[in-house]
Amino acid sequence: MNLQQLAVFREIMKTGSVSHAARNLHRTQPAVSASLKALEDDLGMPLFLREGRRLIPVPEAHYLLSEASSILDRVKMVEQNLSNMRDQVQGSLSIVAMPGPSSYLLPEFISNFIEDKPQVKVTLATRSSPQILNLIAAQSFDIGFCDAAVGTEQDVLSHNTTIPCTCLCAVPKTSALANKKVIHAKDLDGVPMGVLQPSHSTFEATKTAFQSSDAHFDIRIDTQYFLPLFHFVEAGQICAVVDALSAVSYQRSRGDASKIVFLPFEPTVPFGYSILVPHQRPLSRLASSFVSSWQNWVEQTINQSIR
User: Fold this and answer.
1) For residue 240, what are the β-bridge partners?
2) What is the mean pLDDT of the chain?
3) Beta-carbon contacts of residue 38 (< 8 Å; ≥ 6 apart)
4) Residue 278: beta bridge partners?
5) What is the H or E stretch that residue 48 is in?
6) pLDDT tens digits, 230-281
7) CB of 271 within 8 A of CB of 168?
8) Which residue among 3, 155, 156, 160 is the one 20 to 30 A from 253 at the CA level?
């Protein structure tokens, strides 16, 4: 018994005639008769009583019709779903990202990505970069986005695409420093600074930049993430060396009400982002498309932010 035989059988039951079924299925009458006979042979029982040209279904045929209809409708639905997945208009995405991007930029990007995909479901979670690495390694999410500093570990369990960039300097719009084209570490000699906590790679890199410029690194505020620092910069209490996407997040969320200027900083403080996916589980076409689109968007956004 196969799907083709079931489709022929269902059409015969609907029309009550081999010739009508053949016409509806665009097949020859002998081919339809042969398919019905093969089905009855496979089952070891007749499904119709023949009275001249009339086919009278036996009770078992009515049972088979119910089951065949369920099977054929299910197969049709599966084919449609797979077609939608192939065309990337149906499926699911589970994404975990660090707090900065997951607060503003990533939701905005996801919204645009699924705008013409009403059957795509999305899970978006926020975790620290080390937690993201562990979750991707455990295959708990399809895609992770975190600091590049943690993306070099556990490469057997996750595949890492790195997007490098350099940090910018956030200064209050009311500060005289806002009129400069580039902020040098020497310009911040003794200026109260906001930084990430010492465990983060940018802390040592920023400290080294000050030391190489013979400038005093005056730390006033340290936080776990960059975004909270912007409140203190807006208040004119600190300056801060921050990553490009945090700067873009702030600018887009504040718009014309922005109270901070972001400028290139020298000596450069390197930063980078990692797009992580499980190494041992292939991505769906939808997820692969998302990763490629997100990577291109991040790279373009970084290039625009440092001009």
Assistant:
1) 170, 194
2) 89
3) 5
4) 158
5) strand 48-51
6) 999 999 999 999 999 999 999 998 989 999 999 999 999 999 999 999 887 7
7) no
8) 160
Element (H, E) at 277: strand 270-278
Read off the amino acid at residue 197: Q
Q: Left (φ > 0), alpha (ψ -120 to 50) or beta: where does 190 sit?
A: left
Local structure of 280: helix, strand or coil: coil
Please report which confidence band the pLDDT of residue 6 belongs to, taking 50, 70 and 90 as the band edges.
confident
φ/ψ (deg, to 5) at 275: -100, 115
Phi, psi for 163 (deg, rounded to 5): -120, 105
| DSSP sequence for 231-261 | HHHHTTS-EEEE-HHHHHHHHHHHGGG--EE
pTM: 0.70
pLDDT tens string 180-222 = 999 999 999 999 999 999 989 899 999 999 999 999 999 999 9
Nearest 5°: phi and psi at 123? -115, 125
Q: What is the Cα 140 distance to its own chain's centre?
A: 13
Q: How many residues does the chain have?
A: 307
Whole-number Å distance between alpha carbons of 232 and 244:
18
Relative orientation angle of helices 18-25 and 29-43, to the nearest 10 degrees: 110
Token reading at 106: 């990533």
* Angle in degrees, CA 48, 51, 54, rounded to 5: 70
Please give the order of strands across the beta sheet that includes 143-147. Answer: 119-126, 90-97, 143-147, 270-278, 158-166
Amino acid type, 170: A
Nearest CA to 120 among 132, 112, 108?
A: 112
Query: Tokens in use for 282?
Result: 């292939």
